[in-house]
Amino acid sequence: MSDAAGHRGRMLLTGGRGMVGCNIREHGMAAEWDILAPSRQELDLTDAGATATYIARHAPDIVIHAAGRVGGIQANMADPVAFLDANMMIGRNVIMGARAAGVPRLVNLASTCIYPRAAPNPLAEDMVLTGPLEPTNEGYALAKIMALRLCRYIRAETPEMLYKTLIPCNLYGRYDTFDAAASHMVPAVIAKIHAAKVAGDKTVGIWGDGTARREFMYAGDLAGAVLCAAADINALPDLMNIGVGTDHSVNDYYAAAAAVIGYDGRFVHDLTKPTGMKQKLCDISRQMAWGWAPQTDLQTGIMATYQFHLERLPE
Fold this sequence. Notes:
Blueprint: E1 10-14, H1 19-26, E2 34-36, H2 48-58, E3 62-65, H3 73-78, H4 80-100, E4 105-109, H5 138-157, E5 162-168, E6 170-172, H6 185-199, E7 203-207, E8 213-214, E9 216-218, H7 219-231, E10 239-242, E11 248-249, H8 250-261, E12 266-270, E13 279-280, H9 285-290, H10 298-311
Parallel strand pairs: 1-2, 1-3, 3-4, 4-5, 5-10, 6-9, 7-12, 8-13
Antiparallel strand pairs: 8-11
Helix pairs in contact: 1-7, 2-4, 4-5, 6-8, 6-10, 8-10
């Protein structure tokens, strides 16, 4: 790695203030780039004209598209129009704005929710568009599929424009959201167990029987993968999962968080609540062939995430 900041060129990072964007910006490899990470106040990505003008004016060497309207199941079900509309506009405006400005490289971030609901595990990249989507986040998934297809079409028309897509598995980490109404599973579990410990509660509830299996990767690891992709995009497949390659049960995540937090109460399963999909695991064959693997084990990642949560709790 060179000591000269920005020696690889200028990077436009959309969503630079979100969890993934913040982890990219604080990663050690970020020093290799001159990173532009405009806030929503500085650049409204739902405004096609403003987005195209911004990209043309700043002429980045690469765009990392990590922006989007995100939320958990409750938020997606409550406002499906906004999740489809906003994410369609954002994806289209960033990708077409980059194309119009002649930006030669773009890394688009998708989500494993793009895979069909009934697809067999592990989920391989060629399964996209082979079956119906999970209804609870269909709008978000459709928008992400549109963006990855747009990148593929641009590559087909103009092969020298290296517009490629990474599909991360579920994420957690620093800069995560811990609000129960909006957060994903791991930060929600951390916040719930910490609150139980502080309150002296002897039990913590788990929806369903806790046997459903999920793959979660520490967001700092994804940041490393994105920056490796940016540094050597020629070697990157057009479409590639980024994951851990192993999963854990919901019960395992609760147990791991309890061990880190120091909670010694019991877990009680509410069998009247849904368990969710039984498994959601990525096929990481392409990632392994590319030569990358995550470095953060579950305990270390939960510890770092819990520390971040504690630092941001009100006094």
